[in-house]
Structure formats: structure tokens, C-alpha cells
């Protein structure tokens, strides 16, 4: 956090000094292209410094989970009760 704040303060200081000293921009003889190129290069340098100050994310796989099946389970069974077919649950243990 301190590094990021220091980078922002440095960038603001440089930008403030350039604004106060720089003359008004004029687009004759291609001088604007040099300013645009300088701004892009400066932005790339400051962005690279900010990106390099943060640690890379690290992936950690979760621990495996083992489930034991219960020894018994309920199943649905169809049966005849003398009047018609019905369903009931029956416990089956393997």
C-alpha cells in the first residue's frame, strides 16, 4: 500500500510540475505527436511500476473430500396389496 501511494504521489508531482512549466500545446510541425508519444511511454512506465508492486495471485487446490456411503439405503418397491399396486420404501443393507 505504501509503494502504491508513493507511486501516485510521484506521478502527481511530475504531472503538476509539467503542467505548471509546459507552454500551451500547438499542433504545428508535428510537435503534438511527441507529446502524445511521451504521455503513452510515461503511462506505460507508471502502470508497469504499479503492476509490479503487487504480488502475483497464487492458486491453492482445495483438500480432497472423501465421503463414505452409509451401509444401508432406502429404495422404493412396488407391491400388490390385494386391491392394486402400491409403492413402499424398503431399507436395503449391502
Report on this model:
- The protein contains two helices and two strands, in the order ααββ.
- The protein has a two-stranded antiparallel ribbon.
- Helices cover 45% and strands 19% of the residues.
Radius of gyration in whole Å, from Cα?
A: 36 Å
* Average pLDDT level: 80
Number of helices: 2
* Range of helix content: 40-55%
Helix-strand pattern = HHEE
Q: Tell how many strands the DSSP assignment holds.
A: 2
Identify the strand order in the major beta sheet.
Answer: 1-2
The largest pleated sheet is described as:
2 strands, antiparallel
What fraction of residues sit in β-strands?
15-25%
Poorly predicted ranges (pLDDT <50, ≥5 residues)? Answer: none
Query: Which structural category do the helix and sheet elements fall into?
Result: alpha+beta
Summarize this structure briefly.
This protein is of the alpha+beta class and 94 residues long.
Features:
94 residues; single chain; rod-shaped; 2 helices; alpha+beta; two-stranded antiparallel sheet
Q: How are the SSEs placed, and which strands pair?
A:
Elements: H1 2-21, H2 31-52, E1 72-80, E2 85-93
Antiparallel strand pairs: 1-2
